[in-house]
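Hi R.,

Quick one: here's the Xanthine dehydrogenase FAD-binding subunit sequence you asked about.
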Amino acid sequence: MYDIKKVYEAYTIEDIIKLRQAHPKAILIGGGSDVLIKIREGKMAGSELISIYLCDELRGIDILDDGSLRVGALSSFTTITENDLVQKCCPTLGEAVDTAGGPQLRNIATIGGNLSNGVPSADSATTVLAYDAIIELQGANGVREVPATEFYLGFGKVDIKADEVLTAIKIKKESYENYHGHYFKYAMRNAMDIATSSCSVNIKLSDNNIVEDARAAYGVAGPTPTRVFEAENWFKGKEFNDENMKEFAKKALDELAPRDSWRASKALRTQLLYEICYRSLKEIEVKYKGGQNAH
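And here's the predicted structure, written out as tokens:
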């Protein structure tokens, strides 16, 4: 049974904002793949909910006039994976969300909800960071844009104000064009499991195999999804070869803070974080040398 005090239905973004102002303690619910589980477990028992699932303004995947890819917050993981624009511009995002749960969960889980939870194991979070995405929010004072690198404030805490709703994720053309990416998720099972550790990498290479730009983001390597800016800067200008890939994966560990938990020890996670970064880079090398447009 679900112990829910009351459900308010929102049909437009304006409805959401007004309901958030009128019921500041109410919890937003989209697909419900996380919220309903927490209610059933008793963690959110007796909550008021604002359902945004019928707000079609939050759906849709489009290319904007400036070439940016805009993914509506209520886009399901299945929709993202199968979308032609995502496959063309940011295929690693589709690959990442396709690792979440099973088909039933991916059909209902939304990218907005996955990011709003603020948990470091979220399958979309690392790739959104690796694409240098922008989080679009809307509240009583209008639209606000927050770089994904500034969106996570702590474990389970994100930069969403009391009257705001996450409306979309935007990835600029210059952030995806000519980039090659890969997402690597390590979990105890091959499917339907939360990440023990994860890594998403995007690399931009020159014609002579020199790294022009590098972005790497990690999940379950600290209290929030984490970019490794110092290691990224070190990699720029280096040849994209095996030795430098290993050194990059090693340097990235200095900026990460894995911990002991029942899922894995700190020592195991540290080794995993090195390995999955290195393997992601090797996958990119295969795609790049194979002539695939891996972005």
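The longest strand covers residues 197-205.

Cheers,
M.
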